[in-house]
Design goal:
This protein has 407 residues and is of the alpha/beta class. 54% of the residues lie in helices and 8% in strands. It has a four-stranded parallel β-sheet. A four-stranded parallel β-sheet has the order 6-5-7-8, with helices on both faces. Helix 2 crosses helix 7, helix 4 crosses helix 7 and helix 12 packs across helix 25. It binds iron/sulfur cluster (2 copies). The site of one iron/sulfur cluster has 13 residues, from helix 3, helix 4 and helix 6.
Length: 407
């Protein structure tokens, strides 16, 4: 695609990055078929190609309006379009730039600003979020049914093995996961302990920065990222092999630290190293899986439907690993139609765009339940809570299922 970026942006780092992405797009439209919002709304401006066009206009100096903001807000950042695109258009990078620019130019109504500010000041803080969750659990009986179902039952985390192995890896605690489902990281620690690896949570590390970044508080997000790097760095220097992430949404964010901090002289090199070390738990278990093959063989099958989060399959391009590990562990995976489509969770999307999110959830649950599974497994805390709000089946992280098989 030919571009002519406006003078005020073309020679800046953001301008050069956006231009490189735009020039790759040949307007073929292959991405339309796999875009959830285009599938639902049928409007070109709610497709990747339409949004790319809107951002191109903005970068070329056209006035920015509420219409641009609306269509970018409706994007889930699921990145299914990247998976489909034959030209390798990195839509995610472009939309990050486009959203930041729209935020600078188009003021939001006071109510919308307040909502976004409130989310940015609560969700990333585990103590605050944990207190809110405890209240939600206490008053579950008077909450609307779908909201009540999205609040997971308090499940005991179980024992976290002592750090007894020479091989060590870090694990991201995250922000909402410690209070919503502490059993996930504890299960990961037990599985890795069996594989001869000790999993350690570094004091001082917390939210990956994803919540604030996607709410367009990008400066705050960078502060979360730097705090994590500071907390992890001494462990990295002492030989931690990897930074294991059990929430694929957070994993996608941490994998982007190198890119997002590339212009920061104090953090660029460390951030690049963190990106190299960031691994989804499925990648780590996959490398070591031969060691547990004997334990798993011959176990009776149970039917599970697996939801592959967008952040795992499109964001990190990790496909099929958790599914094949579950199959090795004796689970029968049911067929799930439209597995490439988002469930509608997408960070804070389910709160900010509830109508579209609900339609995606209904479709997703129908497809997950079609094979009559006994439960649903996934790989991201946001998807887990969101899908749970739409089904009576239990939704869990797949590593918890594997942990139980190994116990
Ligand atoms: S598939 Fe890729 S090249 Fe084609 S319109 Fe979509 S983003 Fe552009
Ligand atoms: S990120 Fe997802 S919702 Fe956004 S344009 Fe791409 S496919 Fe559509």
């Amino acid at each position: 695609m030919q571009t002519q970026l406006a003078d005020w942006i073309k020679d800046t780092p953001r301008g050069r990055e956006a231009d490189a992405v735009l020039r790759k797009c040949v307007h073929c439209g292959f991405c339309l078929a796999t875009c959830p919002t285009y599938t639902l709304l049928g409007d070109e401006l709610d497709s990747p190609r339409g949004r790319i066009y809107l951002m191109k206009q903005m970068l070329e100096g056209a006035p920015v309006t509420e219409r641009t903001q609306l269509h970018l807000d409706r994007c889930l950042t699921c990145r299914a379009c990247e998976t489909t695109c034959p030209s390798g258009v990195e839509y995610g990078k472009l939309v990050d730039i486009g959203r930041a620019m729209v935020e600078e130019r188009v003021p939001r109504p006071a109510g919308a600003r307040l909502k976004r500010w409130f989310l940015s000041k609560t969700l990333p803080f585990p103590t605050l979020f944990g207190a809110g969750l405890a209240l939600g659990r206490a008053f579950r009986s008077i909450l609307p049914a779908s909201l009540a179902r999205s609040i997971p039952e308090a499940r005991p985390a179980g024992a976290w093995p002592a750090a007894r192995h020479a091989r060590r890896m870090l694990v991201l605690a995250g922000c909402v996961q410690p209070s919503m489902a502490p059993s996930i990281n504890a299960a990961a620690a037990r599985v890795l302990d069996r594989l001869g690896i000790s999993l350690v949570e570094a004091a001082g590390a917390g939210c990956c920065g994803g919540v604030t970044f996607h709410l367009n508080y990008q400066h705050d997000a960078l502060a979360f990222m730097k705090a994590n790097i500071d907390a992890w760095w001494p462990h990295v220097e002492q030989g931690a092999e990897a930074i294991v992430i059990t929430a694929s949404g957070c994993g996608t964010m941490v994998a982007d630290y190198g890119h997002l901090l590339a212009g920061d002289p104090a953090y660029a090199a460390k951030a690049a190293r963190i990106t190299e070390l960031a691994k989804d738990i499925s990648v780590v278990v996959d490398v070591e899986r031969d060691r547990i093959a004997d334990v798993l063989s011959g176990r009776p099958a149970a039917k599970v439907a697996f939801h592959a989060p967008c952040s795992l399959q499109h964001g990190q391009k990790v496909r099929g690993l958790a599914e094949s590990i579950l199959q090795d562990a004796g689970f029968e995976l049911t067929a799930v139609a439209d597995a490439h489509l988002c469930c509608g969770s997408a960070g804070t999307y389910s709160i900010l765009e509830p109508v579209l999110s609900r339609r995606l959830l209904d479709d997703k649950v129908r497809n997950l339940e079609a094979g009559a599974p006994g439960q649903i497994a996934t790989a991201n805390i946001g998807c887990m809570a969101h899908i749970q709000s739409g089904t009576h089946l239990t939704v869990r992280h797949w590593i918890e299922l594997l942990d139980e098989r190994l116990s």
